[in-house]
Amino acid sequence: MPVIPLSPMLVQYLVGLCCLRWSADVVDVTLGDLVHDGAAGKARDVDVTVTVDAGTEGRFAFMAYEVKREAVPLDIGAVEQMAMKLKDMKSVTHRAIVSASGYTTAARAKAKRHRVTLYEIEPWTRPLQEQFPLLPMKGTPEECFPVSKSLLCWPQHKFAILARSATVPFNILDTDPLFNAKKRPHRKYRTFQDLKAELLLRSTEILLSIDPAKTVLNTFPIPWVVPNGHIPAGPAWPHTHTLDLTNDEVYFDTESKFFRLDQATITGWLQWQRSQERTLYYVMQETNTKKAFAGALISSDLREGQMTALMFSPRSLEIGVHFVRLAEKHLNMIRELTLVKPD
What we know:
Trna Endonuclease, Chain: A, domain 1, 3-stranded antiparallel beta sheet, 10-stranded mixed beta sheet, single chain, alpha+beta
């Protein structure tokens, strides 16, 4: 089974979205939550917890998912460890493990013994009518829901940098290091090339929804068929965009002076291009029965930690649309990140 090509944090987020789509009774989904472990006498990490409204009995039930993304199927040792961890958490009423790489035969037997349900996230290739019979469509998800994404790009560009405290002309190479105000390596932009990549992306995120970019996209559709070796693209037009850098706190060091970079102006050509990245189609299903828990269409954005997801439930005709935008602080760790169920 191929490993899901998503970062671990987005795997966790995807499982949370599957829970939101699956149950109308879901009240809250928290990623990286802490659940009390009675045997250990302390709180322990559970990747996804789901609070369920039990009506007159109150909100007390939790579904806990130990979300694992490994290069090989989870073995008996990993399942045993997680099953025992979940068993000691008395607040958890439904215990499950989700894997993006499957399980060994021994691991499945161990999970059955501990009454832990196993789920897998894998490519969604089966015809819709087999797992999602309520949807009035026949064919694979990719056939029924083809997705194309347009990207605003700077195919040709040059940068002009303004530093108000610089007293003499200066030149910055792509490989030159950048610093913070304390003259230490900048945490986010190690080199000028890193900063340029961020500014190009930031610029297009601002310009894509305003004129002239908006009018060009509506007037000149991107062609679907182009010669081999060419990127599907519309016409290019000249443009200049100035960005303020003061909040980035980026500094440059020359032999004579250490100063902050205050402003960047991008000059060149803008163009709409059709993304070459394929939309990802995944299903979360029970390992033994292959019964679908939820399906997802995922379009990853250029910026790390961001994606757009269309979520499907086998129990509903409604399709959920979610825009995942993880904050920088969540790129390395997710804790107490709450998903809001749409009205």
